[in-house]
């Protein structure tokens, strides 16, 4: 079972702000897939056998943006050229960004929720160090160009990791934890002091209980033979 990293909350946050951006919508769908997969694992149902991410990746959208074999081939060629250009100009930076993001992602249970601030701070420090080194060493020619390229990749990669934190919805985790840490006012229940028992004087009742209680006589009429008056009997 994989550990939960607030995928449900992050997916809702990303999808709510995706709008008409397919890339953001795809990231939200992937997070939602992970959240549902974790729920199925907890329920003992295992993984699903069908795809749940409906938004196509970027290359697919670029290549198949127009119908027709000729259009598809032309866009595929342009996509290939674009991938090669990005790999040369920013390939190392993308790798560094994924590595920096993944390191914190793995250690999130120990280090806490991911935030873009530390990445931006590290990128600023690295940028300042790179500028100081390049301006004081007196490098020239190809060596200077290579050093600038390396510095750009490192600084840009760490800064891009900060964007990945934002793009993957970690702001929702920050908001959730902030709400959970809010103090709840204690509930004070005021209790009243017990009432003082009232003493009842039973002396008069006790004296009355000792006295005999008079019972009125009971009169019973008994019918007799004709010509005789009814007899009256008294009973206690």
Keywords summarizing the entry:
transmembrane helix; elongated; 9 helices; two-stranded antiparallel ribbon; 236 residues; transmembrane; membrane; mainly alpha
H/E series: HHHHHHHHHEE
Provide the spatial order of strands within the biggest beta sheet.
1-2
Helix/strand/pairing category: mainly alpha
Q: What is the residue-mean pLDDT, rounded to a whole number?
A: 81
How far apart are the termini? 91 Å
Work out the oligomeric state of the chains in this entry: single chain
- Largest sheet features: 2 strands, antiparallel
For the secondary structure, the number of strands is 2
The value of Rg in angstroms is 44 Å
> Which percent band covers the strand fraction?
under 5%
What's the helix count?
9
Helix fraction, binned, reads 55-70%
Poorly predicted regions:
none
Query: How does the overall form come out from the CA principal axes?
Result: elongated
Transmembrane segments: 75-96, 117-134, 146-165
Keywords: Membrane, Transmembrane, Transmembrane helix
